[in-house]
């Protein structure tokens, strides 16, 4: 019931490839392991700070804030754990089914499978599914370094699949848990009528509930759990956006990978812009509570309709795509997130102009109507400067990323156009599936490019508009030697960046590719179907 997958041997034909164009084998480096370990620490700090804050509310007698804080910790975690367990069940059941059974060692195998089921059930029941996946990613990456040459590639592929899974799960958890948790803590700060936690200072409890936590609970400064929780949420949001983009680029062979310098600068970019956004929200909500809720809902609706109008292509069905766009609309409340192929500079500029206008309007309205009895004019000016300088720092790091550290090179560099009304696409990356799908299987007879559209040089060049005398025919291009690597052909059009490839989302494809890759003596290359060539698609489907 899934897409057709064909493993084509070198004798059966291969993709058109330059001489010596086999892509270099990617290797797992120690810095990759350090990055995963830091991501694990960020995940642990985010969850631990939220639990510490919930416990602090409980001890202080703030049962209402304790319940809401714990709700925004457990509910998103349950959703993500269920999704992670579902993925594990499918992968493990598929591997068990393919491994066969029924021999005399089925007893020990069945006992081991039962132990695996119990262990995974316990891990996900304790809400440690992400921790297990991070540790598994580290294990697979180290195995890809230590194993023999013919097994390194297999562990590397499995490590990339696991990295994609944990990136999707953590991004979902960050904006289901960290973002709402940040909004909740801002609301609590407004309810306590104090903005000191935003500045990293202690706070004294006031109002109802003071003294319910026992003797000495009223009038004493507390050790900043709200400030640490908000800071951990900010770091988690910024880290996961940068980590998601890095893993996505690393997974696609048609895109240049992101360096760790670029990832760190992107973290700083999102960290400062989200911080400015959060402080502006807190200031405005301290005066206009009702209008703050109306503003959030309105902004989310506008961003969601803008994303839907862009016609994204991430999911397999229309309704899943709409739900995905609604989740991205929540992300757009806080920061920029690219969801569409092409040059994103114009869409990003529009988004940040809107964000700057909103931040300025929210901060100015607060400055005009804030309570002078609670906040002095000097502190108010400091807060206004913090909002503006934080946003400016975020934009500065954004320019650093795009001008110096973008994987495709400086975004403002001059690119010449070869022909009028037409711009030639960039040459494909050697070994990428985009350039590999242009050739159908060799066992199928077909006309050459010269017989069908003229000489290759004329077809691919820019023909002059006024031409009186025919030009001399160009010298025939030498045929590049075919590759000796096997080819895995997938009967699906390849999704456009920044979407994931189908074999990273469809777990049936992933299972089949891993099995074919493990059985192949050399590393195979993946080829997706070319959607723009009807004759080639017809020939390809006939062969499959």
From TrEMBL:
<feature type="transmembrane region" description="Helical">
    <location>
        <begin position="351"/>
        <end position="369"/>
    </location>
</feature>
<dbReference type="GO" id="GO:0070782">
    <property type="term" value="P:phosphatidylserine exposure on apoptotic cell surface"/>
</dbReference>
<feature type="transmembrane region" description="Helical">
    <location>
        <begin position="222"/>
        <end position="242"/>
    </location>
</feature>
<feature type="transmembrane region" description="Helical">
    <location>
        <begin position="263"/>
        <end position="284"/>
    </location>
</feature>
<keyword id="KW-1133">Transmembrane helix</keyword>
<feature type="transmembrane region" description="Helical">
    <location>
        <begin position="290"/>
        <end position="310"/>
    </location>
</feature>
<dbReference type="GO" id="GO:0005886">
    <property type="term" value="C:plasma membrane"/>
</dbReference>
<feature type="transmembrane region" description="Helical">
    <location>
        <begin position="64"/>
        <end position="89"/>
    </location>
</feature>
<feature type="transmembrane region" description="Helical">
    <location>
        <begin position="381"/>
        <end position="402"/>
    </location>
</feature>
<feature type="region of interest" description="Disordered">
    <location>
        <begin position="1"/>
        <end position="21"/>
    </location>
</feature>
<keyword id="KW-0812">Transmembrane</keyword>
<keyword id="KW-0472">Membrane</keyword>
<dbReference type="InterPro" id="IPR050895">
    <property type="entry name" value="XK-related_scramblase"/>
</dbReference>
<dbReference type="GO" id="GO:0043652">
    <property type="term" value="P:engulfment of apoptotic cell"/>
</dbReference>
<feature type="transmembrane region" description="Helical">
    <location>
        <begin position="34"/>
        <end position="58"/>
    </location>
</feature>
<dbReference type="Pfam" id="PF09815">
    <property type="entry name" value="XK-related"/>
</dbReference>
<feature type="transmembrane region" description="Helical">
    <location>
        <begin position="322"/>
        <end position="339"/>
    </location>
</feature>
<dbReference type="InterPro" id="IPR018629">
    <property type="entry name" value="XK-rel"/>
</dbReference>
<keyword id="KW-1003">Cell membrane</keyword>
<dbReference type="GO" id="GO:1902742">
    <property type="term" value="P:apoptotic process involved in development"/>
</dbReference>
<comment type="similarity">
    <text>Belongs to the XK family.</text>
</comment>
<feature type="compositionally biased region" description="Basic and acidic residues">
    <location>
        <begin position="449"/>
        <end position="460"/>
    </location>
</feature>
<protein>
    <recommendedName>
        <fullName>XK-related protein</fullName>
    </recommendedName>
</protein>
<feature type="region of interest" description="Disordered">
    <location>
        <begin position="427"/>
        <end position="460"/>
    </location>
</feature>
